[in-house]
Amino acid sequence: MIINHERMNATEHSVKLRLENFKQVSREYKLPLTPQKVAIFRTLAESSSHPRVQEIYEHVKMEFPSISLATVYKNIKQFLALGLAFEIPMPDGPARYDAKLEIHSHAVDTADGSVYDLELAPTIHLPEIIMGKKVKQAHVLYYL
Amino acid sequence: MIINHERMNATEHSVKLRLENFKQVSREYKLPLTPQKVAIFRTLAESSSHPRVQEIYEHVKMEFPSISLATVYKNIKQFLALGLAFEIPMPDGPARYDAKLEIHSHAVDTADGSVYDLELAPTIHLPEIIMGKKVKQAHVLYYL
DNA sequence: CTCTATGCAAAATATTTGCAAGGGA
DNA sequence: TCCCTTGCAAATATTTTGCATAGAG
Fold first, then answer.
1. Which regions of chain B are under pLDDT 50?
2. What is the pLDDT of residue B3?
3. Which of A22, A23, A36, B125 has the fewest CB within 10 Å, making it most exposed?
């Protein structure tokens, strides 16, 4: 297992890739790309701290002071449905979000609420089918 | 990987083991064993459907009509802190609970909200230490 | 007798919804 | 133009808290 400390933010390159994917998927589903929506996705893609909805809202508010919390909620839900983001449910308090595309796992430090990205070693392969259904999302959550 | 369909409830034997453990831990921490608390734990231990707080409340209410939802919340939180129960955070809606003692994983069917217990094959061993901290709880969550 | 638990009500959080107006493709 | 989106406010959950009383050990 490789642990990605990610003290720094996502690289510009990977942010660009995520944004391109986001735009492509939006076109595919004929969903309009509003500036607010792009700002919400970019905030998520640029962050490495697995922000809460509230934090995304506060960040986007700097650029769009009139944005509503409901808009952020609606967009995040849409990202999840489109497979553009992961949700990391937390044992206490609101969920955290992650725009990383590859399936990976998270370690949640319950002491301070920080979330670490983990890459599973390639020898650990998660099942793709369970109970005859395709695995849409897999999270390995460790509570420390 | 072995999938435990668990259409039936937990066996009487395993329920007895869980209840004994619960009572021993309570004595250890000098926490009074009230009838309500025992009923809440028993409800959890006997169920195999990973009930929500609300469902536990409704079940215990049959035996203790005056029980309060707050009491169920308080007790469930205490069980988590004592390691007597697992919490399974859900992508939508309230978390589910499980009194199973061994670390195992869960598959969440997002279509109907049902939760399956999974036993990880022994060849897949989860790390016990991450970032220098002991893993208190590990969940492998699959969203189907 | 002491300490935690219970039950009730109110408060605090968190998330969703309805709807009129705005805006992207 | 056609939908989807936005922003606001109100409505819904959901969970926590304070406090007086009850009860376990």
1. 1-8, 122
2. 40
3. B125
Does the CB of A109 have a partner CB in chain B at under 8 Å?
yes
Q: How far apart are CA B108 and CA B143, in angstroms?
A: 5
What is the reported pLDDT for A129?
76
Q: Which string of b and e fits A13-32 if b means at least 16 CB within 10 Å?
A: eebeebbebbeeebeeeeee
Strand C close to B110 by CB, under 7 A: no
How high is the pLDDT of residue A7? 37
Residue of A nearest to B134 (CA): A144
Beta carbons of B136 and A130 less than 8 Å apart: no
Give SS3 for A103. Answer: coil
The stretches in chain A having pLDDT less than 50 are 1-8, 122
The total of other beta-carbon atoms located within 10 Å of residue B68's CB is: 12
- CATH number reported for the structural domain that contains residue B83 in this entry: 1.10.10.10
Interatomic CA–C1' length for residue A57 and nucleotide D7, angstroms: 13
Predicted pLDDT of residue B64: 97
State which H helix or E strand residue B106 sits in. Answer: strand B105-108
> What would the pLDDT profile of B96-123 be if each residue is shown by its tens digit?
999 977 766 777 776 676 777 777 654 5
Nearest residue to C13 via alpha carbon and C1': A93
Q: What type of residue is B71? A: T
pLDDT for A17: 94
Q: What is the reported pLDDT for A20?
A: 96
Number of domains in chain A: 1
B89, B91, B131 ranked by CB distance to A107: nearest: B131
Q: Print the domain residue range for A125.
A: 2-143
SS3 A136: coil
User: Within 7 A of a protein CB, which nucleotides of strand C?
Assistant: 3-10, 13-18, 23-25
